[in-house]
Amino acid sequence: MPGGAFGAADDVPAGDQAAVSGKTSPLRGMLVTGGCCHDYDAQKLIITEGLTKRLGAIDWTIHQYDQNKDTRATVYEDPDWADGFDFVVHNECFGDMKDPKLIGNIVAGHHKSGAAAVMVHCSMHSYRNSDAADQWRELLGVTSTFHERAKRSLPVVPTAAGRDSGLVEALGDGWKTPNGELYVIKRVWPGTTVLATAYSEEVEADQPVIWRREKDGVRVFGTTLGHHNETMRSDTWQAVVAAGTRWAVGRD
Ligand SMILES: [Zn+2]
Question: Which phi and psi (to 5°) does residue 233 adopt?
Fold first, then answer.
């Protein structure tokens, strides 16, 4: 940067520059992505650019892995992997990664750092064949092991708690997703508040599709919506995930 261009601000200590400009410091965000069945090259951009557009400056660190189900996301090998981050977006699909130590590190890393978690779509089916699956599911806030066979537009309806939360305002009275793959939820863990549901024609019951959870000092915002890029690109998906992330990092 050319010297002198910001001469006046140079004399102000870094911590006070934010106060002078009236801005808050950039959030530190991590995206962990990759694995089976989805277009993570595109979704990486849809998620990071969308959140930056709606939340303001975010200092992103992206860990993207290959397309296999049993891929080892090596970022989690370091017990300090989440230290210093405000939030981590999990958009990963590692259904056959079974190492309990690695999965334990993911959960412990959130608890140790306090980094919020934003859980998207196939993250809910990651690590599902591991002995440590329930550790991961407790962090997620839900247990799911399969999705509907049909891909279709999903009728998403806010719950009363969702309306009260203000986080799913973008749904209005209801939202039909452009396309979708509905996850069937077997269990909602204690501490989880379901914010919106969609009706499953295959199991003939409402399924949680958006929720939040606050437990053990970690805020989690989750949505199973997002298989298709066109769903993620929609203004509604973007607004809901931004509102959830804003809540998760305590800037709502
Ligand atoms: Zn999917």
Answer: -75, -15
Domain count across the chain? 1
At residue 193, φ and ψ (nearest 5 deg) are: -110, 120
- Indicate whether 74 belongs to any domain: yes
Model-level pTM?
0.91
Look at residue 222 and tell me if it is in a domain.
Answer: yes
Measured in whole angstroms, the distance separating CA 115 from the mean position of its chain's CA atoms is 12
In angstroms, rounded to a whole number, what is the distance separating the alpha carbons of residues 112 and 82? 8
Is the model's pLDDT at 3 over the cut of 70? Answer: no
21 pLDDT band, cuts 50/70/90, is low
Please tell me the distance between residue 184's alpha carbon and the centre of ligand 1 in angstroms.
Answer: 12
Ligand 1 mean position to 81 CA, how many Å? 26
Q: What are the structure tokens assigned to 100, written together?
A: 């309990």
In the chain, how long is the greatest CA-to-CA distance? 66
Please indicate, yes or no, if residue 3 is contained in any of the structural domains.
no
- Tens of pLDDT, residue by residue over 65-95, are 999 999 999 999 999 999 999 999 999 999 9
Q: Which domain holds residue 188?
A: 24-248
Phi/psi at 244 (5° precision): -65, -40
Q: Per the domain annotation, does 220 fall within a domain?
A: yes
How far apart CA 156 and CA 174 sit, in angstroms, is: 6
**Pairing label, strands 58-64, 27-35:** parallel
Ligand 1 centroid – CA 242 distance (Å)? 20
* Separation between Cα atoms, residue 186 and residue 7, nearest integer Å: 59
CA of 38 to the centre of ligand 1 (A): 6
